Amino acid sequence: MTSNITIVKGSYSVTVHTAEANDDYKNKFKSFTPATTKQNQSNGPKDTKVIDLLMVTHSIQFNGYLKTSTDRDNLIKIFKGAEAEGAPCIVTYDTYPNSPLSLFIEGLTIVETGEGSSANEAKYKVQINFIEGVSA
Prior knowledge:
With 136 residues, the chain is mainly β. Helices cover 8% and strands 52% of the residues. The longest helix has 11 residues, at 69-79.
């Protein structure tokens, strides 16, 4: 079950009515396979060595909808920086245990549905990809 998220950056705030939330964790590894010399080729290839660099990336994708063009415009302003210097967005997500989160918007897709004639209908479908982190 999902709930609404609130995204705040600078003077802008948007509520996204979520339909789906996906957590994605990735860890970068460095791997290498030692060379096999002519003298020990009969032993077969050597095992690949893996070094865990602990370069873990946490990303979250929200799929949901917006009800107004004002919400759409504000979300685009947040994506473009919201006139705030390099700061992450503050995302409050009711069902996430570590909420609020400091997240950066990596990608944003907005699709106009053509609906939205009443206050309970979705006017825009959105997909927002966030990366968790701190400003460098």
